[in-house]
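Sequence, please.
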C-alpha cells in the first residue's frame, strides 16, 4: 500500500493544488492529511473544501482545533514580541474569514487516525497519524529529541516494532527508526521552514518487509500565494516567509 501524507497546508491553496496533482500523477492507494489546514494564507475555506471534495480525511492540527472551537490562542510557538503579534493577527484573521460550516468541519476532525495496510484482521503493522505528537497536537517533536523521548511517545501511542508514527507541526521534515518503530515528520505542504520554498509531502510505502519513506518536494506558484497574502489584510511577512522557505523565522 502506498499512502500520501500531507501536513501543515496552512490555507495555501496553490501549494495544495500542486501537491494533489503530483500525488495523482504518481498514484497512491490513499491520501491523508495531518492537520493545520488553515492559518497564515488567505484560502481557509477553499483548502478545507478541496480536501473534502477529494475525500481526503485526516487529523486535527492545533490551528484546526483552536479555530474550530474558537479558542483564545492558536497554540503556536513564537520567539519574540513581533512573532507573537504576527501570530495573533493571523489567528484573528483566520477566525474572521473561515465560514461557520468549515469551522464546524475543523472542530470535528479526529485527534488521531490509525491505518492498517494489511487490514485490521491482522495484528499489524500500523501507521499512526497525529499532528504534533500522540499526547498533544501542540507539542513540537523536533529532530533533536532524543531516543528516550521517541520511545515515550511510542508507548503513549501504543506503537510496537514495525509500526510508524507520522506527524508534522514543526514544518521541518525528518525520519528515524528507534526500537524498530519508524518516526516520521512529513514537513509542510504550504509553509515549509527548511529554506526550500517548494511544497513538501511524503509517500509511505507499506510493505510486509517494512515501511519505505520518500520525501517529495513540488514546485508551485509561490508568487500567486505571496501576491494573495499581500493583497489581503494578513501581514506581508507571511508572503516573504513563503518566498524564502521560512528563512526568516516566525511562528509555525
Ligand atoms: Fe503548522
Amino acid at each position: 500500500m502506498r499512502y500520501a501524507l500531507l501536513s501543515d497546508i496552512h490555507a495555501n491553496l496553490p501549494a495544495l493544488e500542486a501537491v494533489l496533482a503530483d500525488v495523482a500523477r504518481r498514484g497512491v492507494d490513499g491520501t491523508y492529511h495531518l492537520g493545520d489546514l488553515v492559518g497564515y494564507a488567505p484560502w481557509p475555506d477553499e483548502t478545507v473544501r478541496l480536501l473534502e471534495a477529494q475525500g481526503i480525511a485526516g487529523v486535527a492540527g492545533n490551528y484546526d482545533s483552536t479555530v474550530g472551537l474558537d479558542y483564545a490562542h492558536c497554540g503556536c510557538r513564537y520567539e519574540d514580541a513581533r512573532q507573537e503579534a504576527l501570530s495573533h493577527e493571523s489567528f484573528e484573521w483566520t477566525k474572521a474569514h473561515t465560514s461557520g460550516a468549515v469551522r464546524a468541519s475543523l472542530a470535528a476532525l479526529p485527534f488521531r487516525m490509525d491505518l492498517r495496510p494489511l487490514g485490521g484482521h491482522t495484528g499489524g503493522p500500523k501507521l499512526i497519524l497525529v499532528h504534533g505528537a500522540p499526547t498533544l497536537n501542540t507539542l513540537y517533536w523536533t529532530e533533536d529529541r532524543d531516543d528516550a523521548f521517541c520511545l515515550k511517545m511510542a508507548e503513549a501511542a501504543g506503537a510496537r516494532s514495525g509500526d510508524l508514527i507520522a506527524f508534522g507541526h514543526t514544518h521541518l521534515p525528518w525520519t528515524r527508526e528507534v526500537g524498530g518503530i519508524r518516526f516520521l515528520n512529513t514537513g509542510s505542504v504550504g509553509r515549509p521552514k527548511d529554506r526550500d520554498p517548494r511544497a513538501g509531502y511524503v509517500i509511505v510505502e507499506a510493505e510486509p518487509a517494512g515501511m519505505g519513506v520518500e520525501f517529495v518536494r513540488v514546485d508551485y506558484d509561490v508568487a500567486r500565494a505571496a501576491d494573495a497574502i499581500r493583497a489581503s489584510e494578513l501581514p506581508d511577512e507571511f508572503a516573504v516567509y513563503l518566498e524564502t522557505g521560512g528563512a526568516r523565522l516566525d511562528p509555525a
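The radius of gyration is 17 Å.
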